[in-house]
Amino acid sequence: MNEIQLRRLNWPHDRAAIGLLDTSFSTTTIYQLHQTELTMHLALVDLASPFEKHYDLSEDYARLPQHDWVLVAEDQSQVVGLAAVEYQQWNRRAVLEHCYVDRHYRGRGLGRQLLTAAIAAARQLSARCLWLETQTTNPAAIEFYRTVGFRWCGSDWQLYDPFALDPREIALFFSYDLT
């Protein structure tokens, strides 16, 4: 493997290359969120058939250059990763809007490099925490964020339209304390 370069977003030059980023994943396990009146817990369950997902970044193209911080991972002019952070001044929270590693580059430490850089960027923005959203259907991402030090801090059963997404997809929120 050649050395992957991390660099700032070069817009609009990077637009087409970001469009080629393979954000898909497949899993045979997902988390189910169980709730009683005032408690919730996650349970990892096996699926009868694999769950497949592809994150379409085209809807976010217009917003990418507007984020406070965007880092691109590049291998020989091919975009193989992306991380973007937005700072919310009202609550001093940085939000990890995007963190993707091309499917063929996963498992090589690139995600950790992007996330480490995003944490550093959040600190430079004077954020008190770095917050992110993922889904119950992405257990690999959940475990990855937890190994880096993020803690589960909430969920939203109603965030996603069940007619647009798989109803098993429930929003989960994680936070990394920067104080």
UniProtKB/TrEMBL annotation:
* Single GO term (MF): acyltransferase activity, transferring groups other than amino-acyl groups
The record ties this protein, via InterPro entries, to: Acyl_CoA_acyltransferase, Bact_Acetyltransf, GNAT_dom
An example Pfam family from this entry, by short name, is Acetyltransf_1
What are the entry keywords? Acyltransferase, Transferase
SUPFAM superfamilies noted in UniProt: Acyl-CoA N-acyltransferases (Nat)
Q: Which domain of life is it from?
A: Bacteria
Q: Which Gene3D superfamilies match?
A: 3.40.630.30
Q: Where would I find the N-acetyltransferase domain in this sequence?
A: 28-179
Query: What CDD domains does the database record attribute to this sequence?
Result: NAT_SF
* Protein name stated in the entry: GCN5-related N-acetyltransferase
Q: What organism does the record attribute this protein to?
A: Herpetosiphon aurantiacus (strain ATCC 23779 / DSM 785 / 114-95)
List the lineage, top down.
Bacteria, Bacillati, Chloroflexota, Chloroflexia, Herpetosiphonales
